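debug: dumping io for the single-chain case to check the tokenizer round-trip. Nothing else runs in this session.
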Amino acid sequence: MKLLESILVTGVRVLDPVSGLDGIRDVLLAGGGLEFVDGTSPVPEDATRVDGGGKWLFPGLVDMHVHLREPGDEESETVKTGLAAALAGGVTTVGVMPNTDPPMDSPSRVEELLDRAAKVSPVTVVPIPCVTMGRAGIEPTDLRAMMEMGVKAFSDDGDPIQDPRILLAALDAVAAVNGVVIEHPEDKRLSGGCMNAGGTARRMGLTGIPSKSETVDVARCLELASGAPGRLHLTHLSLPRSVELARSDPFRSAGATVDVTPHHMALDERAVEESGSMAKMNPPLRSPEDRKELVEMVAKGMVNAVASDHAPHFPGKKDLPMPEAAFGITGLETLLPVTLEILGNAGMQPLEILALLTTGPASILGIDAPAIVHGGRAECVLFDPAREYFLKDENMYSRSRNTPFAGRLLRGRVEMVWIGGPVYREGVS
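debug: decoded output
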């Protein structure tokens, strides 16, 4: 990749959720570092000047919920293609979920992921291995052995941790490293459909997934986590009631954190009529009223993070009738523009929104968030918030294209990414 090694970005809006900085600066990115410069600061003669007027510079995003599919489903995604998609979306830290084949349920499989990622990308990979062997919900994994490797987050994502004894034991164990158990909230005895239960499902002749399939498990896990020493995180909540439960007085002592996805904020169940299986996901897109209220809750500060739940599938798994198609959509490359549009329209300021994509998820995972620090390492994104483009195959990096945003006009484009040195520039491969 041919990238400029020394760049002076002039008049750029610097947004840093770590320090709270929001202001216009001239920024020199050279030698792996970042410096604010003024008229008296030395600038390398070979530095390329970039007009930052109207553009933003902010820390690399942290996406805490990503499926990379390798090993076992390389037709849909590989570690290399998934991390390339991350950079194109401005994401420099990725939390990798364990539902691969075989699942990431042992120290050796954690090591395999880290080794594979280090060979193909500079993106920081945060493994999130299984709570139970094979994600089968029966036998606990060796959490302590994986914590000794530095792992702090665990999940059976794709399945709930149904056995309360295993969930309680995991919450006890992770407390030793201030770790977190990430729950996929779903009571599978109540689900089994392919979209949200309601009028749209009935009109389309499809089996619905009721709201209680999510809220019942949310309440169960919050009750178990109340008084437990370790942290509980509830991921990809799709319902206002779920967020309300997590923030309500009966369960406040659980101290649970929650995230939502861009697609649950941007789309509702009617998208299934337009996009078919491309809008099939678990949890499903909910009613227009639920979507609106969920966005309002995020804008009120009731949600800790926004995560993509990037779930790529090759066409053979999605180009099927709704009941047979796989759940999930890609999300790394649409995470930022969709989130900015929806939450910006809800009245949130850019710095507040970026916190949900940086410091929020980093805190949940127990890691340091990237920051814009004078004299520090460059881990940042140059972004044009006004740039409009249509999402097409030719401008996507993921191996899969299963997204209901395909062909849509998006606003906001990542132009460059630095991790130490420059690692991504739009249009350069």
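debug: round-trip ok. The domain at 6-57+374-425 is CATH 2.30.40.10 (Urease, subunit C; domain 1).
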